Amino acid sequence: MVFETSKQYSGSRNVNQSLWSAENWPSFSVLEMACHHCGEVYLWHEFMDKLQKARDLSGYPFRIHSAHRCALHNARVGGAPLSQHLKMAVDIGLHGHDPQKLYQYCKIAGFTGFGFYSSFLHIDLGRQRTWYGNQKAKQIWQVY
Ligand SMILES: [Zn+2]
User: Rounded CA gap, 32 and 128, in Å?
Assistant: First the structure.
């Protein structure tokens, strides 16, 4: 049985879905965090704990557009070759959220990488950085 922890997360693995902690992460399902193409699961406790914390601060459901991606799926959707999605990153739909507040909650929860897009916020635990998906996204995020 392969078990991914925050100390050992290089390389994705298919993990036993029973290791998913519904108790610790009640707002999320293992399915929505798995690769949408093949169902590969990348279990990273520290990531999920922070995501649940951001969700609790927000008090509003997180609609996950994209989470873990296997290498094939990442290539197919045109993801960066070293995308954090290959480990774990989530794109949270902005619908129903105040984008700036959502960003603040994710920052408070401990996320370090932020991509600002027109319809979602990308968050990850990679190197501390921010970027805009495109010019339109820049305009959208700057007006808030
Ligand atoms: Zn896949």
Answer: 25
Q: How far is the CA of 15 from the centre of ligand 1 (A)?
A: 14
- Is the CATH code 3.30.1380.10 the one for domain 17-143? yes
CB 105 within 8 A of CB 54: yes
Q: How far is the CA of 143 from the centre of ligand 1 (A)?
A: 36
Tell me the average pLDDT of the chain.
89
Between the CA of 142 and the centroid of ligand 1 the distance, in Å, is 34
The phi, psi pair for 33, rounded to 5°, reads: -95, -10
The domain locations on the chain are 17-143
Q: What is the pTM of this model?
A: 0.86
Do 129 and 115 touch, CB atoms closer than 8 A?
Answer: no
Determine contact, residues 65/123, Cβ cutoff 8 Å: no
Q: Which of 83, 115, 87, 85 lies closest to 102, judged by CA?
A: 115
What 3-state DSSP class applies to 13? coil
Report DSSP state, residue 5.
B
pLDDT score of 64 more than 70: yes
Distance 144 CA to ligand 1 centre (A): 35
